Amino acid sequence: MSSKRKAVTLAPAGVLSTREKLWRAMRELKTFRVPDLARRAGVDRSKYSVSDYLRGLLHAGIIRVAAWPGRIGEHATYTLVQDMGVEAPRVRRDGSVVPEPAQQAMWRAMRVLREFSARDLVANAAMAGFTLKMATAASYCTWLARGGYLRSPQKRGEPYRLVKDTGPKAPQILHVKQLYDPNTGKIMAGQTLQEAVDAAEGAA
Questions:
Q1: Which helix H or strand E contains 194, and what residues bound it?
Q2: Strand order in 115-116's β-sheet?
Q3: pTM for this structure?
Q4: 169 and 13 in contact (C-beta within 8 Å)?
Q5: Hey, which residues does 177 pair with through a beta bridge?
Q6: How far apart are the C-alpha atoms of 163 and 56, rounded to whole Å?
Q7: Which end of the chain is more exposed for a tag (fewer CB within 10 A), N or C?
Q8: DSSP category for residue 56
Q9: pLDDT tens digit string along 158-189?
Q10: What share of the chain is helix, strand, coil (3-state, %, to 5)?
Q11: In angstroms, rounded to a whole number, what is the distance separating the alpha carbons of residues 47 and 5?
């Protein structure tokens, strides 16, 4: 009998989300159409709505329509007018900014503090103006310790220690949707790593 399960894992360092691939391609091309952008970014348009991300950037004033033969969309030509830097803008379709993910905020704090407790991460988040649940901070620390990023406390009251700093992007906890057959011990179908990374940041 087949069953569907979610495999939890940490995304490897250096894996770009589709949003990040598109942004990198925009910065390279400067002026582009949707097919050209998708081709440069290596994005499968049957699995990802490139136009949705462009619509958000358009409303945010980060890109503009340079030319269009009758309608905005597939055949329009866009121009990047605000290069925001290497970090890909996180925007909704209406152009509003998406808040920074909790994992990214915690990772940034870890890289500054080097030694910390889950409570320290919660306090750091509060000083930055957003609420972080203790359970969320504790779970993230546990997963990073499993992944070798943190050294776990050896005694009560001791802090976690950051021992593997792979860069500014936070390691992400991914919930990979896969179809597992316990009769054969094989994964029969499911998300790719790219799909799981996109889903984790709400881009899919």
A1: helix 193-200
A2: 115-116, 160-162, 150-151
A3: 0.71
A4: yes
A5: 6
A6: 38
A7: N
A8: H
A9: 999 999 999 888 888 877 777 666 567 677 67
A10: 35, 20, 45
A11: 21
Nearest Cα to 107, choosing from 129, 89, 130, 124?
Answer: 124
Closest CA to 60 of 86, 35, 84, 26: 84
How far does Cα 154 stand from its chain's mean position?
A: 32
Tell me the C-alpha to C-alpha distance, in Å, between residue 165 and each of 2, 150, 161, 202: 39, 9, 11, 25
Q: What is the amino acid identity at position 8?
A: V
For residue 154, give the DSSP letter: S
Q: What is the pLDDT of residues 20-58, one digit of tens each?
A: 899 999 999 999 999 999 999 999 888 788 888 999 999
Q: Give the Cα separation of 106 and 118 in Å (integer).
A: 9
| Cβ-proximal residues to 72 (8 Å cutoff; 6+ apart), any chain | 65
Radius of gyration of the chain from Cα atoms? 20
Instruction: Please give the structure tokens belonging to residue 160.
Output: 């976690």
User: CB-side exposure of 143: number of CA atoms within 13 Å?
Assistant: 19
**Under 8 Å CB-to-CB from 173, ≥6 apart: which residues?**
8, 9, 10, 103, 139, 140, 143, 200
